[in-house]
């Protein structure tokens, strides 16, 4: 099997391919200052996760001050300037423009202003002073600019439009008319209350997302990603189209520790994309397979994307419940991609990996089993009822112990710790336990430095670099979360969310009445048809919004405006949020801003737009999954009214519909499919989303002519013995 690139090589790839990682090149001295600030940000979150969070507003304010201030230091105003190292001058201290230093300090001060005046907030909300409005204006304006630099124009433009709507409400027609707000009132709502910038989105990033991102980086650094890739190659590599299936299986496993689509694409794709190309896959298809599978990391337990942690706050549910609910939808994502890849491999006669390329499972585990200990510890803490950030703290500490010490001895310690946590002795509540194990990790680090061992220093450097890299991953999503707070704040201030919900449900009801009157054997009753069209509209908006907005922002916006519409039709909140979440994942492979697909295309030397379109097509194999769990909520396991009968029935129905739809897109089932066959089995997949015996029978009846002809066609193409 091809050797895995080093951590430094992977980090370089990500920086080249991910817009959120394209940092400004600066002289060595400035790089040390910026690195120190990034390390301080990670250290702050690591400490508070294990030893107690600060007061809510203070914690969010410190996080925001670091994030926005760092963005102005590490992202150039223009991407074209990022790769140029400028010398230090009077107007460019440390190679960074003077105005960026001013912006960094100004936004840090204005971000910390709200925590500073917290004791007087009760007198200020609704009656802001001139200084309050000035500080709020600085924060909002510079935050939008910071978000533009970090993730592009999409989200800032939506935020600007939202503020325009809030101020000029009297100019809008019909149902969107509202009295409008003054700039002072808007700043008051967005800056001084918990409904805007300092709202739930920022809080979740500051208390959950950052810690799990840091754990994922550390886990990858100690070799857990290599273990997952080895397992994937050993299990799936020898089947037809082997490297493509390794890509899917590897992305699923790597997705357990990384909620970043680009990181997943780069890490797994660095091995699988070249192997797919050597096997005969077209370059754009190889890149599309990897990027499509990689996006599933955001919905793969136990460590999902930021949106999963937002669900914890929005729904007031334990994170463990979200993890359990995500298991089957995550499986369906990878199954959908797998089916299309399998049919593509059969259609083109692709073979699997050779014995020389595919490792043995026993050898993989013998080499890397110790690296799974921190993940085991994290899961044990998570499912023992403690907070997600405390689970992440123990996972990070476990990574430090395993990465700094001898792997096998440290892993035995971490496994013992995890078992102790799971025991009914309230292990983590014993005074000093957090301190003792954290101290052990830092003593090992100090030993590596003081003993002047080359290996020890290398391990210490790896851990420090991982802490810095974790902060780099987090600043982009931190800025996006704060800017999304503007959109959420405008929705709560103007009530536009309920207006949009009313429009969507009214339009869906009209469509339902029209279609049910035209089609004699329409499988939906009026209520189900209205729900179906509401879901269809919501899914389409999620996909369109994903063209220019990251997954997390997509989820928050759609939950704010679409979840009420689904709630009006009786959809459980957990189900509604998962529907939006599942479709929002498509954002990273939705052209024209498909960053995961473009990352894969760059690695494969393929056309980016063609790769994005192919990745989007591959993802459509599982497009019916959210519809199935809306009509059969038991598929999420944690939804109210769960029954095993409904779970088994809906899962089987979903698998059948994905298989038929994937075959229709690929043009192959058991043999080549004619166009009429592709259309018929795609149509047959639709009734199955209801997951009732009648709907499944209708689907099978529609598909039966194609299935019978495929069996005959396959027999006729089999060569005689």
Automatic annotation (TrEMBL):
<feature type="transmembrane region" description="Helical">
    <location>
        <begin position="31"/>
        <end position="49"/>
    </location>
</feature>
<protein>
    <submittedName>
        <fullName>TRAP transporter permease</fullName>
    </submittedName>
</protein>
<feature type="transmembrane region" description="Helical">
    <location>
        <begin position="196"/>
        <end position="217"/>
    </location>
</feature>
<feature type="transmembrane region" description="Helical">
    <location>
        <begin position="679"/>
        <end position="703"/>
    </location>
</feature>
<feature type="transmembrane region" description="Helical">
    <location>
        <begin position="372"/>
        <end position="397"/>
    </location>
</feature>
<feature type="transmembrane region" description="Helical">
    <location>
        <begin position="409"/>
        <end position="427"/>
    </location>
</feature>
<feature type="transmembrane region" description="Helical">
    <location>
        <begin position="61"/>
        <end position="77"/>
    </location>
</feature>
<keyword id="KW-1133">Transmembrane helix</keyword>
<dbReference type="InterPro" id="IPR010656">
    <property type="entry name" value="DctM"/>
</dbReference>
<dbReference type="InterPro" id="IPR011853">
    <property type="entry name" value="TRAP_DctM-Dct_fused"/>
</dbReference>
<keyword id="KW-0813">Transport</keyword>
<keyword id="KW-1003">Cell membrane</keyword>
<feature type="transmembrane region" description="Helical">
    <location>
        <begin position="589"/>
        <end position="606"/>
    </location>
</feature>
<comment type="function">
    <text>Part of the tripartite ATP-independent periplasmic (TRAP) transport system.</text>
</comment>
<keyword id="KW-0997">Cell inner membrane</keyword>
<feature type="transmembrane region" description="Helical">
    <location>
        <begin position="433"/>
        <end position="452"/>
    </location>
</feature>
<dbReference type="Pfam" id="PF06808">
    <property type="entry name" value="DctM"/>
</dbReference>
<feature type="transmembrane region" description="Helical">
    <location>
        <begin position="247"/>
        <end position="273"/>
    </location>
</feature>
<feature type="transmembrane region" description="Helical">
    <location>
        <begin position="473"/>
        <end position="498"/>
    </location>
</feature>
<keyword id="KW-0812">Transmembrane</keyword>
<keyword id="KW-0472">Membrane</keyword>
<feature type="transmembrane region" description="Helical">
    <location>
        <begin position="98"/>
        <end position="118"/>
    </location>
</feature>
<feature type="transmembrane region" description="Helical">
    <location>
        <begin position="556"/>
        <end position="583"/>
    </location>
</feature>
<feature type="transmembrane region" description="Helical">
    <location>
        <begin position="224"/>
        <end position="241"/>
    </location>
</feature>
<feature type="transmembrane region" description="Helical">
    <location>
        <begin position="319"/>
        <end position="343"/>
    </location>
</feature>
<feature type="transmembrane region" description="Helical">
    <location>
        <begin position="529"/>
        <end position="549"/>
    </location>
</feature>
<feature type="transmembrane region" description="Helical">
    <location>
        <begin position="648"/>
        <end position="670"/>
    </location>
</feature>
<feature type="transmembrane region" description="Helical">
    <location>
        <begin position="153"/>
        <end position="176"/>
    </location>
</feature>
<feature type="transmembrane region" description="Helical">
    <location>
        <begin position="618"/>
        <end position="642"/>
    </location>
</feature>
<feature type="domain" description="TRAP C4-dicarboxylate transport system permease DctM subunit">
    <location>
        <begin position="435"/>
        <end position="639"/>
    </location>
</feature>
<feature type="domain" description="TRAP C4-dicarboxylate transport system permease DctM subunit">
    <location>
        <begin position="139"/>
        <end position="407"/>
    </location>
</feature>
């Amino acid at each position: 099997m091809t050797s895995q690139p080093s951590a430094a090589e992977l980090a370089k790839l990500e920086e080249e391919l991910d817009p959120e990682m394209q940092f400004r090149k600066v002289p060595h001295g400035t790089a040390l200052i910026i690195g120190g600030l990034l390390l301080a940000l990670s250290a702050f979150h690591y400490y508070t996760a294990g030893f107690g969070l600060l007061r809510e507003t203070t914690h969010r304010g410190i996080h925001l001050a670091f994030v926005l201030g760092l963005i102005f230091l590490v992202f150039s105003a223009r991407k074209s300037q990022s790769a140029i190292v400028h010398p230090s001058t009077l107007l460019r201290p440390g190679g960074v423009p003077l105005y960026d230093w001013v912006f960094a300090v100004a936004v840090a001060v204005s971000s910390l202003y709200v925590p500073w005046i917290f004791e007087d907030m009760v007198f200020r909300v609704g009656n802001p002073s001139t200084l309050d409005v000035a500080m709020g204006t600085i924060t909002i304006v510079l935050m939008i600019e910071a978000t533009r630099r970090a993730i592009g124009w999409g989200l800032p433009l939506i935020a600007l439009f939202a503020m325009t709507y809030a101020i000029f409400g009297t100019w809008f027609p019909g149902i969107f008319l509202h009295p409008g707000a003054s700039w002072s009132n808007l700043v008051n709502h967005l800056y001084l209350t918990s409904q805007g910038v300092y709202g739930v989105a920022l809080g979740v990033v500051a208390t959950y997302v950052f810690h799990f991102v840091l754990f994922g980086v550390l886990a990858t650094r100690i070799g857990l990603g290599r273990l997952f890739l080895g397992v994937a190659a050993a299990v799936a590599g020898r089947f037809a189209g082997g490297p493509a299936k390794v890509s899917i299986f590897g992305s699923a496993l790597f997705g357990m520790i990384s909620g970043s689509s680009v990181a997943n694409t780069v890490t797994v794709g660095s091995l699988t994309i070249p192997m797919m190309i050597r096997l005969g896959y077209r370059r754009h298809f190889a890149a599309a397979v990897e990027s499509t599978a990689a996006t599933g990391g955001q919905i793969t337990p136990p460590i999902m994307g930021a949106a999963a942690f937002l669900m914890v706050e929005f729904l007031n549910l334990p994170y463990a419940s979200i993890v359990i609910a995500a298991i089957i939808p995550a499986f369906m994502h990878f199954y959908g991609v797998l089916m299309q890849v399998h049919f593509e491999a059969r259609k083109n006669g692709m073979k699997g990996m050779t014995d020389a390329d595919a490792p043995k499972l026993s050898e993989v585990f013998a080499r890397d089993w110790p690296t799974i200990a921190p993940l085991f510890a994290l899961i044990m803490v998570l499912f023992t009822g403690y907070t997600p950030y405390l689970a992440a703290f123990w996972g990070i500490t476990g990574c430090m112990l395993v990465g700094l010490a001898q792997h096998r001895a440290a892993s035995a310690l971490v496994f013992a710790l995890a078992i102790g946590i799971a025991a009914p002795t309230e292990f983590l509540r014993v005074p000093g336990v957090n301190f003792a194990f954290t101290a052990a990790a830092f003593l090992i680090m100090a030993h590596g430095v003081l003993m002047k061992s080359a290996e020890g220093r290398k391990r210490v450097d790896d851990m420090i670099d991982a802490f810095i890299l974790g902060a780099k991953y987090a600043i982009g999503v931190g800025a996006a979360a704060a800017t999304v707070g503007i959109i959420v704040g405008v929705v709560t201030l103007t009530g536009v969310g309920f207006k949009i919900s009313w429009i969507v449900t009214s339009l869906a009801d009209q469509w339902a009445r029209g279609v049910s009157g035209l089609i004699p054997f329409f499988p939906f009753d009026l209520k189900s048809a209205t729900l179906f069209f509401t879901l269809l509209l919501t899914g389409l908006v999620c996909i369109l919004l994903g063209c220019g907005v990251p997954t997390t922002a997509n989820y928050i916006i759609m939950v704010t405006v679409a979840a009420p519409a689904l709630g009006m039709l009786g959809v459980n909140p957990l189900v509604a949020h998962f529907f939006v979440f599942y479709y929002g994942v498509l954002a990273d492979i939705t052209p024209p801003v498909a960053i995961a697909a473009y990352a894969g295309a760059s690695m494969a030397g393929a056309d980016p737009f063609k790769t994005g379109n192919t990745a989007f097509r591959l993802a459509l194999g599982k497009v019916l999954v959210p519809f199935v769990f809306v009509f059969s909520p038991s598929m999420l396991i944690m939804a109210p009214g769960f029954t095993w009968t409904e779970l088994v029935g809906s899962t089987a129905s979903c698998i059948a519909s994905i298989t038929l739809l994937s075959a229709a897109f690929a043009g192959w089932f058991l043999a080549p499919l004619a166009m009429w066959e592709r259309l018929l089995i795609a149509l047959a997949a639709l009734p199955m989303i209801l997951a009732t015996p009648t709907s499944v029978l209708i689907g099978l009846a529609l598909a039966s002519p194609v299935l019978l002809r495929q069996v005959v066609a396959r027999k006729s193409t089999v060569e005689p013995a």
